[in-house]
Design goal:
It is built from 14 helices and two strands; from the N terminus they run H-H-H-H-H-H-H-H-H-H-H-H-H-E-E-H. By secondary structure, it is an all-alpha fold. The two termini are about 35 Å apart.
Length: about 280
């Protein structure tokens, strides 16, 4: 018994040691970004590098904010993120419900074909989407940044798995009470699966907020640029202002961190449900 207790204690210590090491490894780049944003140009390029600034340079944030039209970038990013995420939620929830609950000819084949598209390299999608956007004359518009990403096969498949776990008895009981499919979706399926739906919302919002390549390709004026483009304003032929890049990165990351802290409960619940389902 004593040996078993010792083994259990050692196992717990190792488990928490690994978790703590993983947390430190994950948070270290974020901590480095914050501390670097408070350094001078000489400190951030010094060799060997120092972890903490001698005198915190909070003026870096004000200088970074003035160096680019960040209010306009933030507005554009919010428009793209909110509309894209709302569109993804609508298409994902409706499609997932159809695949999980409704019976129609070719359902399995259609789902298989959709999953097969996940094997297509992203670069090929960018090229074809860009050609389509050009033909539609949508260059330098909001719809160019939003419409191509109003649906996600991965999120549809993810929610389909969660929706499939809801017992059929609930659906049959709703039908007995003369509840149509749309009402059943709104009243039962969405509340039961609010955690994975919230997780999809957060993941898609983060992807839209940090998107760089596609908005850069389909816009050609500063009035339509997004936040990630603002980081390029500090790279010139004479070099890069790394302290300002770090300060601007903090500005870019802050809203996402706040949203995650507010909704982290649902993310954890969604991960937990995915681990115990079945």
């Amino acid at each position: 018994m004593n040996k078993r207790k010792i083994v259990n204690v050692v196992a717990e210590v190792l488990k928490y040691a690994i978790l703590i090491a993983g947390a430190i490894f994950t948070l270290l780049p974020f901590l480095w970004m914050i501390l670097s944003s408070l350094k001078t140009s000489a400190e951030i390029t010094a060799i060997p590098p120092s972890l903490f600034p001698k005198v915190p340079q909070f003026s870096n944030f004000a200088e970074a904010w003035k160096s680019a039209p960040f209010p306009r970038y933030i507005f554009n990013t919010l428009v793209v993120t909110i509309i894209s995420t709302a569109g993804v939620l609508v298409t994902t929830v409706l499609a997932a419900y159809a695949f999980a609950r409704l019976n129609f000819p070719g359902k399995k084949l259609m789902l298989s074909l959709m999953l097969a598209t996940l094997m297509i390299p992203g670069e090929m999608l960018i090229i074809t989407n860009f050609i389509t956007i050009t033909k539609l004359k949508w260059i330098n518009t909001y719809q160019a940044m939003i419409v191509p990403y109003l649906a996600s096969v991965f999120y549809i498949y993810l929610l389909t798995q969660f929706f499939s776990q809801v017992p059929d008895a609930l659906y049959l009981a709703a039908k007995v009470d003369k509840c149509n499919d749309f009402k059943y979706l709104i009243k039962i399926m969405i509340p039961i699966n609010k955690s994975p739906i919230t997780t999809v919302c957060i993941l898609n919002a983060i992807g839209c907020w940090n998107s760089f390549m596609w908005p850069l390709l389909v816009t050609n004026s500063k009035e339509m640029r997004v936040l990630s483009y603002g980081l390029m304003q500090f790279q010139t032929e004479n070099g890069s202002s790394y302290e300002l890049i770090m300060a601007a990165s903090c500005i870019l990351v802050l809203p996402i961190v706040v949203v995650y802290l507010i909704l982290r409960k649902y993310v954890i619940e969604g991960v937990t449900q995915s681990g115990i389902k079945g």
